[in-house]
C-alpha cells in the first residue's frame, strides 16, 4: 500500500491525482495543502531569479511583477493574483489539474482565462521541470498578462485557433481534414513557442526577454541573451511556423520582435496564412501532435 504524500509537489500530489480520476480539469487551489517544503521551494526559486529578471526581463514584465504584488516568500493565492490582474487586462488565472488539450487551452485565453498549474516542482530539483508548475505559470506567464497589449495578443491568438477549428469543419474528406488540422496545430504551437514562451524583444535598453519559458528558467534566462552560440534572428513567419523545437534542452534558436504591437500584427498575419492554406503543409517534426490535441480541434465546441 502506497503512503499518501502531503503537499502539492509536481507528480506527487494526491489531490491532483484524485481530481484527474474524477475527470475534473478546472479546480480550486487547495492552498492549505502546500507543505513547508513547497513554500521553501517557491522562496528559493523567487530569490535566485529576481536579479536575473532585473537584468534580462522586458520592463513590462517587471511592471507586472510589481502590479501583481507577487509574494517572494509564499506561493501566491490565485484569488489574490486575480484581484490585481483582472482590472488591468480582464485576465484571470484559472487553476487546472493538469494538461489542457490544445484547443481548450487556446479557447481559454481567448476568453481571458489562463489555465494555471497549482503544483510546484521538488525543492531538490529546482532546474528540473517535468511539466509546467505554479512557478512557471504564475511567476513566468502571469506578470505579462497585466499588460493590456500583450493580453490582447493572447486573446487574438485564441481567436486564430477558433478560426482554424471552424475552417476544418468545411473539409469533406476526413483524412484530409485530419492532416490539415494536424499541420495547423503544429504551426500554431511553433508560433506560440517562439513568441509567448521563448520570445525576445528589442527595447531602448537593448534585447530583452518577454517569453515565459525563459522568464521562469534561472539558467536559460541568462543563456538566451548572453550565450554567443544562441542564434537570435528577427521574427520571420515562414521560418517560425516551419521550425521544429525540442523542449528538453536550452534553445539554440530564438526570434526577436520589435514591440508588442509588432507581435500582435504577426498574429493577424498568422490568421491570414491559415485562411490562405499556408499552414496546411508545414515541415514535419516536433512538436508531435497527440490524439487529445487533435481531437480537441476536430470536435471543438464553437458556440458561445
User: In CATH's first tier, which class applies?
Assistant: Mainly Alpha
Total count of domains:
1
Helix content: 40-55%
Number of strands: 6
N- and C-termini, Cα separation: 46 Å
Helix count equals 13
Lateral strand order in the biggest sheet: 4-3-6-5
Question: What class do helices, strands and sheet pairing give?
Answer: alpha/beta
**Any idea what the CATH superfamily is called?**
Aromatic amino acid hydroxylase
What is the H/E order?
HHHHEHEHHHEEHHEHEHH
CATH topology-level name: Phenylalanine Hydroxylase
Percentage of β-strand residues: 5-15%
Low-confidence stretches: none
What value does the Rg take, in angstroms? Answer: 19 Å
Topology diagram in text:
Layout (H helix, E strand, L loop, with lengths): L13 H8 L14 H21 L2 H10 L9 H12 L2 E5 L5 H9 L2 E5 L16 H12 L2 H21 L5 H24 L2 E4 L2 E4 L2 H4 L2 H9 L4 E4 L2 H4 L12 E5 L2 H16 L15 H8 L6
Parallel strand pairs: 1-2, 3-6, 5-6
Antiparallel strand pairs: 3-4
Descriptive notes:
The chain has helices at residues 14-21, 36-56, 59-68, 78-89, 102-110, 134-145, 148-168, 174-197, 212-215, 218-226, 237-240, 260-275, 291-298, and strands spanning 92-96, 113-117, 200-203, 206-209, 231-234, 253-257. Helix 7 (148-168) runs antiparallel to helix 8 (174-197). It is 52% helix and 9% strand. It is an alpha/beta fold and 304 residues long. It has one domain (49-90, 101-106, 131-298): Phenylalanine Hydroxylase, CATH 1.10.800.10. The chain has a four-stranded mixed β-sheet with strand order 4-3-6-5. A two-stranded parallel sheet has the order 1-2. It has 13 helices and six strands. The model has no long low-confidence stretch (mean pLDDT 95).
Amino acid at each position: 500500500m502506497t503512503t499518501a504524500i502531503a503537499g502539492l509537489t509536481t507528480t506527487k500530489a494526491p489531490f491532483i491525482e484524485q481530481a484527474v480520476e474524477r475527470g475534473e480539469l478546472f479546480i480550486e487551489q487547495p492552498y492549505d495543502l502546500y507543505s513547508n517544503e513547497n513554500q521553501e521551494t517557491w522562496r528559493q526559486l523567487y530569490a535566485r531569479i529576481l536579479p536575473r529578471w532585473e537584468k534580462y526581463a522586458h520592463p513590462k514584465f517587471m511592471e507586472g511583477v510589481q502590479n501583481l504584488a507577487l509574494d517572494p516568500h509564499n506561493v501566491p493565492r490565485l484569488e489574490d493574483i486575480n484581484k490585481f490582474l483582472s482590472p488591468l487586462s480582464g485576465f484571470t488565472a484559472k487553476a487546472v489539474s493538469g494538461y489542457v488539450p490544445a484547443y481548450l487551452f487556446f479557447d481559454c485565453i481567448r476568453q481571458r482565462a489562463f489555465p494555471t498549474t497549482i503544483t510546484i516542482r521538488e525543492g531538490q530539483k529546482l532546474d528540473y521541470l517535468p511539466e509546467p508548475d505554479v512557478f512557471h505559470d504564475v511567476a513566468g506567464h502571469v506578470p505579462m498578462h497585466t499588460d493590456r497589449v500583450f493580453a490582447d495578443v493572447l486573446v487574438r491568438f485564441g481567436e486564430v485557433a477558433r478560426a482554424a477549428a471552424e475552417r476544418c469543419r468545411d473539409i469533406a474528406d476526413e483524412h484530409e481534414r485530419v492532416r490539415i488540422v494536424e499541420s495547423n496545430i503544429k504551426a500554431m504551437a511553433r508560433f506560440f513557442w517562439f513568441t509567448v514562451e521563448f520570445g525576445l524583444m528589442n527595447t531602448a535598453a537593448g534585447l530583452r526577454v518577454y517569453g515565459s519559458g525563459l522568464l521562469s528558467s534561472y539558467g536559460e534566462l541568462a543563456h538566451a541573451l548572453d550565450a554567443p552560440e544562441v542564434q537570435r534572428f528577427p521574427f520571420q513567419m515562414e521560418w517560425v511556423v516551419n521550425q521544429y523545437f525540442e523542449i528538453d534542452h536550452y534553445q539554440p534558436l530564438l526570434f526577436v520582435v520589435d514591440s508588442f504591437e509588432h507581435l500582435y500584427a504577426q498574429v493577424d498575419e498568422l490568421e491570414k496564412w491559415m485562411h490562405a492554406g499556408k499552414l496546411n503543409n508545414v515541415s514535419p517534426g516536433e512538436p508531435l501532435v497527440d490524439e487529445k490535441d487533435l481531437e480537441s480541434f476536430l470536435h471543438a465546441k464553437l458556440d458561445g
